[in-house]
Amino acid sequence: MRVFLTGGTGLIGSAVTAELLGHGHTVLALTRSAASAQAAEAAGAEPLPGGLADLDVLRAGVARADGVIHLAFGNDFSSAEAVARSVAEEGAAQAAMGEALVGSDRPYVTVSGTPWVPGRASVETDQVPTDGPVGGRGRAVMGVLALASRGVRSTAVRLPRTVHNQGQGGFAGLLTGIARQTGISGYPGDGTMRWPAVHALDAAVLFRLALEQGPAGTAWHAVDDEGDAVRDIAGVIGRRLGLPVQSVPDDTFGPLGPIFATDQPSSSAYTRETLGWVPSHPSLLKDLENIQP
Fold first, then answer.
1. Nearest alpha-carbon partner for 103 in 152, 67, 54, 56
2. How do 107-113 and 46-49 pair as beta strands?
3. Neighbours of 21 (CB within 10 A)
4. Residue limits of the NAD-dependent epimerase/dehydratase domain (predicted)?
5. DSSP state of 169
């Protein structure tokens, strides 16, 4: 299958590219810069210059592909306004690619986050949030899944708060960056809130399985660790960086503070049973041991 892939050179996307190529697919990768294009070519993919705002380029990429995997997102969390711009840009891009796929029965795998449900781990049948700081992402994903009624085999892979590899990535990576800046490995509140996690190489396998097997209109959870206490995550980061570990105000984490402070464990039992997905790479707490001082 020829797959049009957005975000193909990031931490997750590079793993997805390798996974697809390793299983007989070819990859047409959207690339925003010359460096990204070189990285895509080096990985064995064909670069397609452009970004999420280039809707005509996205439509052209879809036209050249047997299936689509969307991963790209403008990771600017510096302010609420920046997050809103990234969410709006991504939503428009997802809609444009979806419209280009209508009536084709081709697979369209988009990305989402695992939802949070008070008092229990979220499951695949729970709805993603459509309000709050990133509610627009939830609305866009629901729009993609609704394309199932218009001849698109649309599916969503829900990623946990931390997708990691070699101690980098996700919310845990943001905690590490903030710790380096502030000199404190901090956590919100009492730190007992739980974050799910998955290794990027395991997540890549699920994206491939969803592309190959996922029925139209379905959502899947790329969750290995159901929920690590944020205090434990901060503890490993602090030890690796030689920094004190303590509670800090929620506003330390900028516009993502409310999300950071939310207990949000998640289950992937249905995904594992249905698609035969078996994570095999290191857990988050073990992988964080790769953080360099």
1. 152
2. unpaired
3. 15
4. 3-218
5. S
Task: Return the percent helix, strand and coil in the chain, to nearest 5.
Answer: 45, 20, 30
Identity of the amino acid at 104: S
Round to whole Å and give the CA distance between 186 and 206.
Answer: 32
Quote the CA–CA distance of 282 and 114 in Å, as a whole number: 20
Give the three-state DSSP class for 238: helix
Run of H or E including 166: none
pTM of the model: 0.94
pLDDT tens track for 91-106: 999 999 999 999 999 9
Q: What is the fold, at CATH topology level, of the domain defined by 163-196+226-266+283-290?
A: UDP-galactose 4-epimerase; domain 1 (3.90.25)
Q: Where in the chain is the domain with CATH 3.40.50.720?
A: 2-161+198-225
* Domain over 2-161+198-225 is classified CATH 3.40.50.720: yes
- 37-51, 64-78, 140-154, 209-223, range with the lowest pLDDT: 64-78
Tell me the average pLDDT across 159-170: 96
Q: Please state the length of the chain.
A: 293
List CB contacts of 171: < 8 A, sequence separation 6 or more.
Answer: 161, 162, 195, 256, 260
Q: Where in the chain is the domain with CATH 3.90.25?
A: 163-196+226-266+283-290
Distance between CA atoms of residues 25 and 247, nearest Å: 46
Tokens of 10: 């990031």
| Per-residue model confidence as pLDDT tens digits over 33-53 | 999 999 999 999 999 999 999
